[in-house]
Amino acid sequence: MSGPRLLDLFAGAGGAGVGYHRAGFDVTGVDIAPHPDYPFQLIVDDAMAILEDTAFLRSFDVVHASPPCPRYSTITPEETRDSHPDYLPVVIDRLKAAGGVWVVENVPGAPMPADLTVMICGRAMGLRWFKRHRLFASNVPLLSPGCACGTERPWMVTGDHPDSHEYRRPNGGTRGRKPASVQHAGEVMGIDWMTTWDDLADAIPPSYAEFVGTQLIDHLEAAS
Description:
Helices cover 27% and strands 18% of the residues. The chain has helices at residues 15-23, 47-50, 54-57, 88-98, 182-189, 197-202, 206-223, and strands at 5-9, 26-31, 41-44, 62-65, 101-106, 117-120, 134-138, 166-168, 174-177.
C-alpha cells in the first residue's frame, strides 16, 4: 500500500529517501545529476527550479530538502566558504511560501531557524562507530534524540576517497579515521545500496530520516 507522498529534493543517492521510505512514505527524488543507485523514482532536474513550482510542491504531503552544505561545513577551509553558493535561505523561504509540511536538513553551523531546528547524532541512532551530526528544521515540531557521542574514535566518511588514515580538518585537528573502502563506509553508515564514495560522503544515514519521518507520519495522521 502507498503511504503519504514525500518529495526528496537534492536527493543524491537516497540516504534520506530510504529513511523516509522506511518510515512509511512513498518517495520521489529530485537531483540535478543522475544517481543510478537511487532506489525510487528520480527526476533529474534542478531542485532550485522545482522549488519555484508551488503547485508541484503542494502535490506532495511533505517536501524534504538537503541543499548543498560546503558554505557551512567545517571541512571547507574558512577562506573559501564564500565561494560556495548560499542556497539554504532561499530554499527555506520558498518552502515556507509554498505552504504544506516541509523539512530542511543541513550541517551544524548552517543558519537554520533556531526555533524549528533539532540535531540528530549518528551514535544516538545506533551507529556506534560513525560520527555525523546533522540539523533538521521543520514547520512540524520535531524531537531530538540528543547526542550520544562517546570516547571511541569514530570513522569519518568525508573527502574525495577512502584511505584508512586519520582524517584531519583544515585546522589540523583530527576527528577520527576514514574507512579504507566504499563497502566499509556503507557498513558504518547503515547503507548497503550505494556504490560510490562521493555518494556516501554526501549522504545522511537513513536512520536519521526514518527518525524524522516517523514523527511526520504521526503528525499527518493526527491532522487527517
